[in-house]
Structure prediction request, 151 residues.
Amino acid sequence: MQQLPRIKAAYDWFYGQWQREASRLAEAGDVSALAKLDEKRDTLERGVFVLMFGQFEVAVDSIFQTARTRRLGEADWALRRGWDTGSLQGRKIPFETKLSLVLDRRSPTFGKILGTYATRNHCAHGGMELSVGSIDSLAAELYAWCSELRP
Prediction:
């Protein structure tokens, strides 16, 4: 989540610029230009959404790596059990698998994260149908979710 403040600050700057330009166009009654400006805002917000969620993915990966290293270092098989399987080695471990090992799958947060992850995937692959919601709310959620992760 190291870059999240920087990404959010850049978005906030952009949003301020967008608000000023949108106000100017609205006052001028230029509906067509306002619609084009709004499309640009929507596209940029999707990119920001993907970048911000990417920071959360990095945090999940880091905590997963810490958990895996700790568990693999355990002499007691009961504590190491399951962590030394080949499916948890390497770099191609699915996000949901990593998340389930650092956050209780039964927590309400788990489902919310997976829903947000689905939106992230939709946007990352050019999808424009799903709403990304408030960038401010996303930032707050990412920090809250990060605080629930456990190695």
User: Anything to note?
Assistant: Residues 31-72 form the longest helix (42 residues). Residues 72 and 83 are 6 Å apart (CA to CA).
